[in-house]
Specification:
The complex is a heterodimer.
Chain A (H helix, E strand, L loop, with lengths): L2 H7 L2 H5 L8 H39 L4 E10 L2 H4 L7 H4 L4 H19 L8 H5 L6 H11 L7 E7 L2 H7 L5 H6 L5 H12 L3 E5 L2 H4 L14 H32 L4 H15 L2 H15 L7 H26 L2 H9 L4 H30 L2 H5 L24 H9 L5 H31 L4
Helix pairs in contact in A: 3-21, 6-8, 13-16, 13-18, 13-20, 14-16, 15-16, 16-18, 17-18, 18-21, 20-21
Chain B lengths: L2 H30 L7 H38 L2 H5 L4 H21 L4 H6 L7 H7 L10 H39 L6 H41 L2 H6 L3 E2 L7 E2 L2 H32 L2 H16 L2 H21 L11 H26 L2 H9 L4 H30 L2 H6 L17 H9 L8 H31 L5
Antiparallel strand pairs in B: 1-2
Helix pairs in contact in B: 1-2, 1-7, 2-7, 2-8, 4-7, 8-18, 10-13, 10-15, 11-13, 12-13, 13-15, 14-15, 15-18, 17-18
Classes of the chains: A mainly alpha, B mainly alpha.
Chain lengths: 452, 486
C-alpha cells in the first residue's frame, strides 16, 4: 500500500536507481490511479447535476408553450333569428340553444371576416376553415349569450380558441409533413392559418384559461385547464394541514416530553419510522379499503385524498417536530419549572413557541411532499374526468375533484400529443408551487433560526 | 343539519362553556372569600374540554359506524331472488345508495314531496328518468325491491342523522353542564385539564399505530378474500399473468416480481456507484464552493415529485433510448422499457444514496485518514482501503433503503416500464411491476368481489412485506455494525 512496504519486497535492482527526485514506475501508477479515481468522482457529480439540468430542460422545453395559446379574433353577429326565436329574451328559452345553433354563426363570422380582409382560402372550403376553430368556441359563445341576453342582435368581437392542431403548428408540434398524414388537419389549412396570422386574425397570447379552466375532453386539448386540479390540490392541502399539524405536534410532544421509555412507546416509535418507509401506493390501498369501501366516503373526493395524504405526512411532521423540540435547550424548561410552572405549562408556554419555526418548516416540507404525491390518489379514483368545480368547503370536500399530479398522469394517458404539452405545463405549475413552499420554509428557517 | 354545522355548533358551545366555567369559579371565590386553586382560565378550559371532546368523539364514531350499520341491515333485507339477475349484492347496494341520494336531491329541489315518495313505487313511476334530471345516472331500470330498499335506506339514514344530532348535542351539553356544575374554588382545575390534555396527546400518538393496523388489516382482510377465490399456489408459482375481467384469468405473480426486481436492479446499478462516488468526491475532494453548490443541487433531485420523473421517462428518456439504442441495435421498438424506467429511477435514487453515504463518510474520524496519509497512502487509496471499509455497514444500509424505495416506486414504472407482464431478459422490452399492476387492477370501474380486483390487495401485501423486510434489515445492519467513534 505504501512505498515503505513496497520497498522491502522490491528487488535489489529496483533499489539501485532510486532517487527522491525521480518518480518510480510504481508511484506513477499509483498517482495515475489517484487521478482516475478523482476524475470518476467529478464525473459522478457532473452526471448528477446534468441529470437535474436535463430533467428541468426537458420539462420546460415541452411545457412552457402551454402558457401560450393561439386565438382567433373575429366579430360574431349574434343573430336574434337563431338565438331567440320567440324574441322575448327569456333566459329559459335561451337556455335551450345548443352549440349546433351557434356553429353556423361562427362559421359565417369567420367567412365574413376573411372576405372583408380579402383573404383567399386556397383549397379550404368554409367548413374546413371553421374546423380551424376549437370545438370549445360555440360553448364560449353560448356562455356569453346566457350571461347577457341583451347582447343578442349585436355584433360582438370574440377571441375564440384555435383548434389544437393549428395551435400546435405555431408551437412546432405540427408541421406541414405531419399535417399531410393527419386526418384532423391539412397543409392547406396551415397555409390559411399563416395568412390569417399575417392579417392579425390569428393571435398568440398568454393563456390564463390554462390555469383556471376545468379539464376538457379528448378532442379539445386546447381547452383543457388546471382549474379543478388546483382547487382539488388546495382542498387536500387544507385537510392535511388541519389534521396532520395538530395531531403530529401533539404526538411529538407526548413522545418527546411525557412518554415513559417502555415497550409501548417503543412500539409507537417503530411504527412511525416504519410508516415513513412504507411505499406510498400502500397508503392508497388503505384509503380505498378503509375510507371508501368500509366507511363509504365518496370516490374522487378531496376528503379521502386529504385523509390518505395526512396519514402519509404525519411521520414527516412528527420527525421534524421532535427534532425542533429536542433543539430547545433544557435550561428553558428548567427555568419555567423553577418558577413554579407545571410541566404542561412549561411546554405549552415556553418550549412550543420556541420550537414553532422548526415545526413550521417541517410542516411545509411535509405539505410539499404531499402536494406532489400521485400514486395513492390514483387508487382512490382521483383520475376521474371532472369538469365541474367542487363547491365551497367544507361541503366541497365531498365533491369530486382532481389534483395537480393526477391531472398530469391523466393527460399523459390521452391520445392527442397536445396533451403531453399540457402535462408538462401542469408540471411547471406544480414545481412553481413546490419552489414557493420550499422558499417559504427556507425563509422561515433563516428568519427564526436561533442558536442557544 | 350537516356534520360541519354540528361541529361548529359544538365548538360554539365549548367557547360558551369556557366563559361560563371561568365566571362561575370567579363568582364562587368572591362569594366564599377563598382563593382559587388554579388560574381562572383553567376552570373555563376544563369545562370547554369536557364539552367539546366527548361530543367530537361520539360524532366521529357515529359518522364511521352509521353507514356500516345501515349497509348491513339493508343488504340483509334484499332477497336473494333480486340479486340473481344483477350479479352481486355489492352492485345492488351501490344502486340503493345512489337512488337514496337522488331521491333526497329530488325532495330538496321540491320536485317530489315526502308524501308522494311514500306512495311512489318503481312500477308506476319512471324513477330512472326522474333521477336523471338531478344528475343521478342509473345503469338499468329500477326494480321495485331495490326502490323499496332505497326508500328504507333513506329513512333509516335520515332518522340516524337526526338521532346523531340529538345525541351529540346531549353529550356536549351533558358533559359541559356536569363539568360546569363541578366548578368550585377548591377544585384542582389545572390538574384536571392538564390530565385531559395529556390524554389527548397520548391519543394522537396512537394514530401511527392505528394507521399500521389499518394498513395490515385492510391488506390481510382483502387478501384472504382473494385467496378464497383464487388458489394461492397459482398466484405464487404460476408464470402467466393474464387477467380477464370476465373471469377465468391467470394471475401468476412471478412475471411481476421479475419485472420489479429487474427494474430495481437497473436503477440500483446506476444509482449506487454514482451516488457513492458523488458522496466520496464531495466529502473528500471537493472544495467548499463546489460542495456548497453541488450538494444542494443534487439534493434537489430528491425533492422532485415522482410524477415529474415519470413524465421525463415518458417524453424524453423513453423515445431517446428507443431511437438511439434499441432500434439501431435491433433490441426492441418500445419506448417504455425496463431500461427507461430503471435509468430514470436510478437518477431519482442518486440523492438518496449520496446524502446518506455522505453523512456516514463524514462520521469516519479524521484520525483514521491522517493515519493512512502518514503511512504514505494517496487519497484514493485511503478512501478505498480505510474509509469505505469503515463506512460499509452504513452504505449497505443506504443501499437497502434505496432498494426498498425502488421496489415500492410507482409513478416512474407506471409511465416508463409499460404494462406487458413477461419473464424476459431484454432490458429494452416493456415489462411490468407489482406497483403498475396494483394501479391498473384498481383504477377504472371496478367491482370489489372479483379475484381480478382483489389480486391488487394480495400484490399490495407482498409489496408491503418485501419493503418492510428490507427496511428492518437495513436498520438492523446500520445499528448493529455501525462503528462508534469518539
Amino acid at each position: 500500500m505504501t512505498d515503505l512496504t513496497a520497498e522491502t519486497s522490491a528487488s535489489a535492482s529496483h533499489k539501485q536507481n532510486r532517487s527522491l527526485f525521480e518518480v518510480g514506475e510504481r508511484t506513477r501508477k499509483r498517482h495515475a490511479s489517484e487521478r482516475r479515481f478523482r476524475r470518476l468522482g467529478l464525473a459522478a457529480v457532473i452526471f448528477g447535476i446534468l441529470a437535474l439540468v436535463g430533467l428541468m430542460a426537458s420539462i420546460l422545453s415541452n411545457g412552457l408553450s402551454s402558457f401560450q395559446q393561439t386565438y382567433v379574433a373575429i366579430d360574431v353577429f349574434l343573430d336574434p333569428a337563431k338565438l331567440d326565436k320567440n324574441g322575448n329574451r327569456d333566459p329559459a328559452d335561451i337556455q335551450k340553444i345548443t352549440t349546433f345553433t351557434i356553429n353556423p354563426l361562427i362559421q359565417a363570422a369567420l367567412k365574413k371576416t376573411m372576405e372583408d380582409r380579402g383573404i383567399e382560402a386556397d383549397g379550404v372550403n368554409a367548413k374546413k376553415a371553421f374546423e380551424m376553430i376549437s370545438k370549445e368556441a360555440p360553448a364560449d359563445v353560448r356562455r356569453y349569450v346566457l350571461a347577457d341576453p341583451g347582447e343578442i342582435g349585436k355584433t360582438v368581437s370574440f377571441e375564440l380558441l384555435a383548434n389544437g392542431r393549428i395551435d400546435g403548428y405555431y408551437k412546432g408540434r405540427v408541421t406541414m409533413d405531419s399535417a399531410a398524414l393527419d386526418r384532423n388537419v391539412s397543409p392547406e389549412q396551415l397555409l390559411l392559418a399563416d395568412k390569417l396570422k399575417q392579417a392579425g386574425i390569428l393571435q398568440s397570447r398568454f393563456n390564463w384559461s390554462f390555469l383556471t379552466a376545468p379539464d376538457a375532453s379528448d378532442t379539445r386539448p386546447e381547452a383543457a385547464g388546471l382549474g379543478v386540479a388546483i382547487l382539488g390540490s388546495a382542498y387536500m392541502m387544507l385537510i392535511v394541514l388541519v389534521l396532520a399539524l395538530p395531531i403530529g405536534v401533539a404526538a411529538s410532544i407526548y413522545l418527546e416530553e411525557f412518554a415513559p421509555r417502555n415497550r409501548w412507546t417503543d412500539l409507537i416509535e417503530v411504527n412511525i419510522s416504519n410508516l415513513a418507509a412504507v411505499p406510498s401506493i400502500v397508503f392508497g390501498i388503505l384509503g380505498l379499503a378503509i375510507f371508501i369501501n368500509f366507511v363509504g366516503l365518496p370516490q374522487s373526493a378531496p376528503v379521502v385524498g386529504g385523509l390518505v395524504l395526512t396519514l402519509m405526512t404525519l411521520p414527516t411532521i412528527i420527525i421534524a417536530t421532535r427534532a425542533a423540540l429536542k433543539a430547545v435547550p433544557p435550561s428553558i424548561r428548567d427555568a419555567a419549572l423553577g418558577i413554579g410552572a407545571s410541566k404542561m405549562q412549561a411546554i405549552f408556554h415556553h418550549v412550543l413557541p420556541l420550537a414553532a419555526p422548526g415545526i413550521l418548516t417541517g410542516t411545509i416540507i411535509g405539505l410539499a411532499q404531499a402536494l406532489g404525491e400521485t400514486a395513492p390518489l390514483l387508487l382512490i379514483g382521483m383520475v376521474a374526468f371532472v369538469r365541474e368545480y367542487p363547491g365551497a368547503p367544507p361541503e366541497g370536500f365531498f365533491d369530486p375533484a382532481s389534483a395537480l399530479p393526477v391531472q398530469v398522469y391523466n393527460w399523459t394517458q390521452r391520445g392527442d400529443p397536445a396533451f403531453v404539452e399540457r402535462a408538462s405545463g401542469a408540471i411547471i405549475v406544480l414545481l412553481v408551487f413546490l419552489l414557493l413552499m420550499n422558499a417559504i420554509a427556507v425563509l422561515l428557517r433563516r428568519r427564526f433560526e436561533r442558536r442557544w | 343539519m350537516t356534520p360541519s354545522v354540528l361541529v361548529l355548533s359544538v365548538l360554539g358551545l365549548a367557547i360558551v362553556g369556557y366563559f361560563l366555567g371561568r365566571q362561575r369559579a370567579l363568582q364562587a371565590a368572591a362569594r366564599d372569600g377563598v382563593k382559587l386553586h388554579s388560574l381562572p382560565g383553567y376552570y373555563g378550559q376544563s369545562v370547554a374540554l369536557f364539552t367539546a371532546v366527548p361530543a367530537f368523539f361520539l360524532l366521529g364514531a357515529w359518522l364511521f359506524l352509521q353507514p356500516i350499520a345501515i349497509e348491513s341491515s339493508i343488504s340483509g333485507k334484499i332477497p336473494d331472488s333480486a340479486i340473481a339477475d344483477a350479479g352481486a349484492r355489492s352492485l345492488i347496494m351501490v344502486d340503493v345508495r345512489r337512488i337514496a341520494k337522488g331521491v333526497s336531491l329530488l325532495i330538496e329541489q321540491g320536485d317530489v314531496t315526502e308524501n308522494e315518495l311514500s306512495d311512489m313505487s318503481a312500477e308506476v313511476t319512471n324513477v330512472r328518468a326522474q333521477l336523471a334530471t338531478v344528475g343521478v345516472a342509473l345503469g338499468s331500470d329500477v326494480s321495485p325491491v331495490v326502490f323499496e330498499a332505497a326508500k328504507e335506506y333513506r329513512s333509516i339514514e335520515l332518522s340516524g342523522d337526526f338521532v346523531r344530532n340529538i345525541a351529540v348535542f346531549l353529550v356536549a351539553l351533558g358533559f359541559g353542564f356536569w363539568a360546569w356544575a363541578r366548578v368550585q374554588p377548591r377544585m384542582r382545575a389545572r390538574n384536571i385539564s392538564e390530565t385531559f390534555v395529556l390524554a389527548l396527546l397520548m391519543g394522537s400518538s396512537m394514530v401511527a399505530i392505528l394507521t399500521t393496523v389499518g394498513i395490515v388489516g385492510s391488506l390481510l382482510f382483502e387478501s384472504v378474500a382473494f385467496f378464497k377465490l383464487y388458489p394461492a399456489e397459482d398466484f405464487f408459482l404460476s408464470t402467466t399473468w393474464n387477467p380477464q375481467f370476465r373471469g377465468g384469468s391467470d394471475l401468476g405473480f412471478l412475471p411481476l416480481l421479475w419485472g420489479t426486481f429487474y427494474v430495481s436492479f437497473v436503477a440500483l446499478a446506476l444509482a449506487v456507484p454514482i451516488g457513492l462516488m458523488i458522496a466520496l468526491y464531495l466529502a473528500e475532494y471537493a472544495g467548499t464552493t463546489l460542495r456548497g453548490f453541488a450538494k444542494p443541487a443534487i439534493e434537489m433531485l430528491a425533492g422532485i415529485p415522482t410524477i415529474v420523473y415519470g413524465l421525463f421517462a415518458l417524453i424524453t428518456v423513453g423515445p431517446f433510448l428507443r431511437d438511439w439504442i434499441a432500434q439501431p441495435l435491433g433490441l426492441g421498438t418500445s419506448s417504455s422499457s425496463v431500461m427507461t424506467a430503471g435509468l430514470v429511477m436510478g437518477v431519482m435514487l442518486i440523492p438518496f444514496i449520496s446524502s446518506l453515504s455522505d453523512d456516514i463518510i463524514n462520521a469516519v474520524p479524521q484520525a483514521m485518514r491522517d493515519g493512512s496519509y502518514g503511512l504514505g497512502a494517496t487519497k484514493s487509496e485511503t478512501i478505498r482501503r480505510v474509509i469505505l471499509p469503515a463506512a460499509l455497514p452504513g452504505i449497505v444500509g443506504a443501499f437497502l433503503l434505496a432498494a426498498s424505495r425502488a421496489i415500492g416506486e410507482t409513478m416512474i414504472v407506471v409511465m416508463g416500464a409499460g404494462a406487458a407482464a413477461q419473464l424476459g431478459l431484454n432490458p429494452f422490452e416493456a415489462m411490468t411491476t407489482v406497483t403498475v399492476k396494483i394501479v391498473s387492477q384498481l383504477t377504472g370501474d371496478t367491482e370489489f368481489a372479483s379475484p381480478e380486483t382483489l389480486v391488487a390487495f394480495a400484490l399490495g401485501l407482498t409489496l408491503f412485506v418485501f419493503t418492510l423486510c428490507l427496511n428492518i434489515l437495513a436498520l438492523y445492519i446500520v445499528r448493529k455494525y455501525r462503528e462508534q467513534y469518539e
